[in-house]
Every structure is written in C-alpha cells, then in structure tokens.
Write a structure and sequence with these properties.
It contains 12 helices and 17 strands. With about 375 residues, the chain is of the alpha/beta class. It folds into 2 domains: about 10-150, 3-Layer(aba) Sandwich (Rossmann fold), CATH 3.40.50; about 180-370, Methylesterase CheB, C-terminal domain (Rossmann fold, 3-Layer(aba) Sandwich), CATH 3.40.50. The strands form 4 sheets. Strands 10-12-9-8-15-16-17 form a 7-stranded parallel β-sheet, with helices on both faces. Helix 7 (about 195-200) links the parallel strand 8 (about 185-190) and strand 9 (about 210-215).
Length: about 375
C-alpha cells in the first residue's frame, strides 16, 4: 500500500482495481465540498475519480469515458437525481451508489432510487476529508468496490400488482403462539440485497417462520425500508428494536449501525441490539447475527446468505450449519454480486445453493421438515 493510501486512515481492501484496470468512479453532486471530499477519499485508495456538478455535465462525461461506478446525489440542479437514474438504467445501465442525506424526504428518495436500480445507499458526508469518520469511509469504499463488481441490466417495468379483497376489506390476522420449537430464519445480504430481500419476503406467507435479516444499510434508512416492505408483504415487517420477539409471521430488519443478536429468553426468542465495533467491516454484521442464532436456536434455525460483496456471513453460516441448522445460499445467476455466497460455499457452510425465486419454497420446506422432526433439521 502506498504512502498516500496509508495516510487516509482507511484500510485499503480488495477491489481497488477492476480486472487489470483501476476502478473509475464519477461523483455527481452539486456541492463542491462533497465532490472534493469524495474524489480525494477515493483517490487515496487507488480509485480513479472525476466529478460533475449536475446530471447534464455527468452525461457529457459519460459519453467521453464510461465510468465503472457512479456515486450519485439525488437533489441536483437541471435534472433530479431520480430522473437521471431512470434514464441511465433505461438507456445505459451503470452501477450506481446513492450518496444522500438520509433524513426526512431524503430517505424516501433513497428508497425510490433503490427501486429504480441503484445498488446501495450511503450517508452523505457533511465534513471535509480530514475529519471524515473512519467507519463511514469504510462503508463508502466497500459500497463502491461492491458496485464495481456488480452486474446491472436495463430495468423492466414492474408488473401491475394483482389486487385481492384485502384492498377493500383487510383480513383479521390470526393469532400466533410462540413455542420453544419455533423456526427462525436468519438472512444476510449486502450489495443488491434490498431487491433480493424484497422478493424473498413478498413470497413468504403471513404465518411463515420468524425472520431476522441483516443488510449493510446506513443508520436512519432501515426503518423506512421496513415500513415500505410492510405495505408490500403478508408478513409483519419492521425494524428490529431491543427486546422484540421473533415469532411466526414477523420479519425483523436489523437497524443500521447496530448489531442484531437473537437471544433465548425462556420460551421465546428476543432481539438484543449492540453498539459493538465493526465485524467483518460492517455494523450490523451478518456474522454476528448468524453466530447468535446458532447459539440460541441451533437445529431450529435456517440460515440464508444472499447477494453481496465480501465475506460477511460466511463464518457465521458455517457455525449455524455446525450447530445443526439448515443453510442456504443464493445462486450466482440471481446474485448482483456473488461474493458472500461464494465465500460461504468455499468454506463448506452451505447445504444447498438456490436461485432467488426458489428460496422461499426452500425455506418453507426446511421449516416444515424441522418441525416434523421435533427440531432436528
């Protein structure tokens, strides 16, 4: 690592190069301070970076040199960031990382950007490069490296939803009683994970086994994401809070910047949140969740590792399998980035590799099998 890279205070990880060429990033932001902060940070890590003050200038630069990744603000002059993103994904798909102030309306815009094809969201820095927080820089750099490895395609219009009587007369939820043998599904994902988790949870029944999921998302974003999913899924989806009960029909998403653990409390499973250090370069960490589930639930658990860069979750999934849990990984063809599943497979942590569209069925079959066996998966 060069002296310049060392001076950034951020550990240089793999992925500063794409094949034999350095990663080239285009930063699109109307703030000169942010453009300078991000381009300097990327350059210190060996990533080539240029900048544009608005989407019109960005399109001119793209025509001259196509970047590997675009880091995009959303509130931009001359063309809104969402309009630019939609045009990009329709005409010339390029991996996009949204860099946004994730408060209020900004959070909703970031969610809409993910729906339109952005791969990740990071919190917009508000201070100069010298004061840029170490952990925030790690998250940004990992998002860029992951996006550089991702496969993106032109977006297809989403089919119109087929409504049921629920749209007029909501059904009354049936009560669910937790028992010591409740199945727990622990899910981990990173780059491309919002779309993958959405697809998974939309296919789960309202009485499906309790789900706890870790996504590599920033603070302030996971609550809005969970709220949106709750309106799209039959399960009760929410951001996990301290002491939340893991039970059938409920999916809990670990809050950004906090580790989520599952603990056994008598006849129930409960969520415990931790402000501990980054694990596998992340907080929340999939490894932390998977280890806690292995310890709390053993053979009553199902571990699922989905699309994402790096190796977070590989070690924890192996611990789950060694504890008797069923373990699944998303297949390469349906992953945006196959890094996390590939690493788990290489370590012998995966019982079966499954395409995204088959994951819900595979999970439900294993949950039923474990219940029939009295907890022996």
């Amino acid at each position: 690592m060069s002296g310049r890279a060392a001076s950034s205070g951020v550990p240089a990880g793999p992925g500063a190069r794409r094949g034999d060429k350095p990663i080239h990033v285009l930063v699109v932001d109307d703030s000169a301070v942010v453009r300078q902060t991000l381009t300097q940070l990327l350059a210190l890590e060996g990533i080539e970076a240029t900048a544009a003050a608005d989407p019109i200038i960005a399109m001119e630069k793209i025509a001259r040199q196509r970047p590997d990744v675009i880091v995009l603000d959303l509130e931009l002059p001359r063309m809104h960031g969402l309009d630019f993103l939609a045009r990009l994904m329709d005409e010339n798909p390029i991996p996009v990382v949204v860099c946004s102030a994730l408060t209020g309306a900004g959070t909703d815009l970031a969610l809409r950007a993910l729906e339109q094809g952005a791969l990740a969201v990071v919190t917009k820095p508000r201070i100069a490069i010298r004061e840029f927080l170490h952990e925030s820089a790690v998250v940004l750099l990992d998002a860029v490296r992951g996006a550089a490895q991702a496969r993106v395609a032109k977006r297809r219009p989403a089919p119109s939803p087929r409504l049921t009587a629920d749209a007029v007369l909501p059904p009354r939820p049936a009560p669910t009683a937790a028992t010591p043998r409740d199945r727990i599904v622990a899910v981990g994902a990173s780059t491309g994970g919002t779309e993958a988790l959405t697809a998974l949870l939309q296919a789960m029944p309202e009485d499906g086994p309790g789900v706890v999921a870790v996504l590599h998302m920033p603070e302030g974003f996971t609550a809005a994401f969970a709220d949106r999913l709750r309106g799209m899924c039959r399960m009760d989806v929410r951001e996990a809070a301290e002491g939340d009960r893991v039970q059938a029909g409920r999916a809990l998403i670990a809050p950004g910047n906090r580790h989520a653990l599952v603990r056994r409390r008598g006849e129930e499973y409960r969520i415990e949140l931790s402000d501990g250090p980054l694990v596998s370069r992340h907080r929340p960490s999939v490894d932390v969740l998977f280890r806690s589930v292995a310890q709390a639930a053993g053979a009553s658990a199902i571990g699922v590792l989905m699309t994402g860069m790096g190796d977070d979750g590989a070690r924890g999934l192996l611990e789950m399998r060694e504890a008797g849990a069923a373990t699944l990984a998303q297949d390469e063809a349906s992953c945006v980035v196959f890094g996390m599943p590939r690493e788990a497979i290489a370590r012998g942590a995966v019982e079966e590799v499954v395409s995204l569209d088959r994951l819900p069925t595979a999970i439900l079959k294993r949950a039923a099998r474990a219940a029939a066996a009295g907890g022996r998966a």
